[in-house]
Recover the amino acids of this structure.
């Protein structure tokens, strides 16, 4: 069933309204009509089965049939910090990362980032990234759209490590030494259990480098800021592959794939 994310003010206990692109998609692409149903999510944890009552070209009104109790969000809240890759690779990271359960994406600039940061283009690019996250969340039947933050500097990212229960710094040197995610998670299992956290979920940050990888100096800076080095296996992954691969591993280790 088609899923749409709406702003909280457009979903009450009794009614839902789709506007703009969502309304046009329902009316023109799906050829929706009164009586057709869809799922509406406010992005804050409320999912509702809704039934259209009036379908217009730019607005769809619907009544709430019932609220749904199941949640499709992972047991761990994982933020992906991704050094800006070349071309449209960031779009792939956001799309596939949303499908595999990321809670947020934090693009950043590191020493070997080859993309020239253009502040004039930032607003347009950020809007596109957020649109991709929304569409991927709808396709994957997520209950929340991942946050996509504006591009930040490396030093600013380091300052945010303290917000997380565990920061995983993906470093290919650790992969060559054979120390991977499973070993690291086992060593720090106490950080992922108990405690008072928003939503009751452990907060993790995975840090992914650019095409040329991290410098040794950056790895040391990350460790001093509280990150734990980890490998993603003995093979060298492309930067756009690393985050979805890590998210899939974390989904397995968190028990989301079955105990």
């Amino acid at each position: 069933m088609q899923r749409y994310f709406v702003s909280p003010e457009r979903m009450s206990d009794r009614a839902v309204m789709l506007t703009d692109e969502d309304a046009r998609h329902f009316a023109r692409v799906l050829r929706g009509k009164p009586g057709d149903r869809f799922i509406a999510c406010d992005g804050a944890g409320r999912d509702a089965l809704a039934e259209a009552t009036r379908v217009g070209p730019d607005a769809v009104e619907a009544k709430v049939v019932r609220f749904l109790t199941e949640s499709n969000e992972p047991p761990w809240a994982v933020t992906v910090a991704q050094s800006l890759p070349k071309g449209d690779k960031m779009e792939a990271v956001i799309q596939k990362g949303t499908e595999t359960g990321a809670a947020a994406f934090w693009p950043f600039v590191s020493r070997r980032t080859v993309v020239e940061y253009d502040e004039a283009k930032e607003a347009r690019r950020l809007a596109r990234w957020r649109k991709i996250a929304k569409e991927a969340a709808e396709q994957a039947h997520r209950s929340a759209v991942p946050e996509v933050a504006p591009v930040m500097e490396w030093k600013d990212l380091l300052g945010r490590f303290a917000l997380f229960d565990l920061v995983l710094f993906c470093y290919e040197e650790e992969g060559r030494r054979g120390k991977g995610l499973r070993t690291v998670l086992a060593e720090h299992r106490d950080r992922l259990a108990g405690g008072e956290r928003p939503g009751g979920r452990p907060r993790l940050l995975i840090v992914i480098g650019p095409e040329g990888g991290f410098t040794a100096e950056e790895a040391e800076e990350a460790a001093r800021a509280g990150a734990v080095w980890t490998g993603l296996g003995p093979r060298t992954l492309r930067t756009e592959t690393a985050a979805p691969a890590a998210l899939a591993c974390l989904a397995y280790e968190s028990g989301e794939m079955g105990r």
Summary: The chain has a mean pLDDT of 89. The two ends are 28 Å apart (CA to CA). Helices lie at 20-29, 89-99, 119-139, 154-158, 172-177, 181-187, 216-224, 239-253.
